[in-house]
Amino acid sequence: IKLLTKEAFIPAGADKLLFMMAPVFAMLPPLLAFTVIPVAPDVRYATGLLKMQVADLNVGLLFVLAFASLSAYGLAFGGWASNNKFALLGGVRAMAQMISYEIGMGIILLSMVMSYETVSLHSMAYMQAGATQNAAGVWKGGSNWIWHWGVFTQQLAFIMFTICAFAENNRLPFDLAECEAELVGGYHTEYNSMCFGMFFQGE
């Protein structure tokens, strides 16, 4: 509520269009990546089946990785458009860190692809619930026993993925892109109101 009610201020010398578009570039890709994530089991009703996800794509995991990589552009644009040397350095460092850890994250996720033999997040979720698929493509059964979860079947991959996720979001101890000691606040130094809120939501 505080960020929504604050006045938006654009610094002198900033590229106004890019300055306002950068938070959108930072927030929109993660939101789009959520469209393929199943949030609950399928709901059966009298005339059909309701899948509890916006889009059930056969390439769901690749879709998430593709859109997650696009948010790095928003950070770089925000640093460049601010006309502030500290924001520019923060944007470059954030983009370099995100790209480098995305490579590791993609390789780690290959262990899940090899375990479940699919890149569909819908199928992965049902397999982790212990369900089986019949000839018609309908998932049946499922014990919901937690030992089927990828966290337990791929422990090392889970630990490495968690480290990469912290680095991807510039959180401690990987807060190099936003550290106040050298860069004031990083790529969002000049941002306020809901423009800052969009960067925050994107993370």
Would you list the SSEs in sequence order as H and E? HHEEHHHEEHHHH
Neighbour order of strands in the largest sheet: 1-2
- How many DSSP E strands? 4
Q: What is the arithmetic mean of pLDDT?
A: 85
Distance between the termini: 18 Å
Strand content: under 5%
Major β-sheet profile: 2 strands, antiparallel
Structural class: mainly alpha
* Unreliable spans: none
Tell me, what's the shape?
Answer: elongated
Count every helix, treating DSSP H or I runs of 4 or more residues as helices: 9
Radius of gyration: 20 Å
Which percent range fits the helix content? 55-70%
Give the helices and strands, then pairings.
Elements: H1 2-5, H2 16-33, E1 43-45, E2 48-50, H3 60-81, H4 85-116, H5 121-128, E3 132-133, E4 139-140, H6 150-153, H7 155-168, H8 180-183, H9 193-202
Antiparallel strand pairs: 1-2, 3-4
What does this structure look like?
- The protein is mainly alpha-helical.
- Helices cover 57% and strands 5% of the residues.
- It has helices spanning 2-5, 16-33, 60-81, 85-116, 121-128, 150-153, 155-168, 180-183, 193-202, and strands at residues 43-45, 48-50, 132-133, 139-140.
- A two-stranded antiparallel sheet has the order 1-2. A two-stranded antiparallel sheet has the order 3-4.
- A hairpin with a 2-residue loop joins strand 1 (43-45) and strand 2.
- The longest helix has 32 residues, at 85-116.
- The protein is elongated and about 65 Å long.
- The protein starts with a helix and ends with a helix.
- The mean pLDDT is 85.
